[in-house]
Amino acid sequence: MWTKSLTVSALFLAYILTLTYPDITCIRLVSLNVPARVKEGSEVQLSCLYDLGNASLYSLKWFYRNHKNPEEREFFRYTPRGKPVKQVFPLEGINVDFYKSEGGTVFLTEANGMTSGNYKCEISVEGTFQTVFAEKLMTVDGMLKH
């Protein structure tokens, strides 16, 4: 049960947090575009759209996992103030087009059976390092053989 003193204490704490962290914002992952099915050998575009409010992006990372590798592993990182700004981490079946990939958009080339799996986009902001993420499954369909 809320008492008057508890309510006043909660409001005071909220006020102090607002003064201490004036840039507190609510970041939002607007959409994660990962095609559900793609053809083997095709190029795939993954995109992660976000709204940072008044915050600045610290990093945007892409992760991957599948039935053979159930532990998620990072394969692409974008840090606008980092050196380097973008990094690719080699993973079997994940062929990133480094030159076309930028920000929240990653291009994968030569999709194959190992490319099938769960793709996760994770966004963090500077200062508070508030983080949001979303994940979707993509399946690569093999070529029909005659």
TrEMBL record:
<dbReference type="InterPro" id="IPR013783">
    <property type="entry name" value="Ig-like_fold"/>
</dbReference>
<feature type="domain" description="Ig-like">
    <location>
        <begin position="22"/>
        <end position="139"/>
    </location>
</feature>
<dbReference type="InterPro" id="IPR036179">
    <property type="entry name" value="Ig-like_dom_sf"/>
</dbReference>
<dbReference type="InterPro" id="IPR007110">
    <property type="entry name" value="Ig-like_dom"/>
</dbReference>
<protein>
    <recommendedName>
        <fullName>Ig-like domain-containing protein</fullName>
    </recommendedName>
</protein>
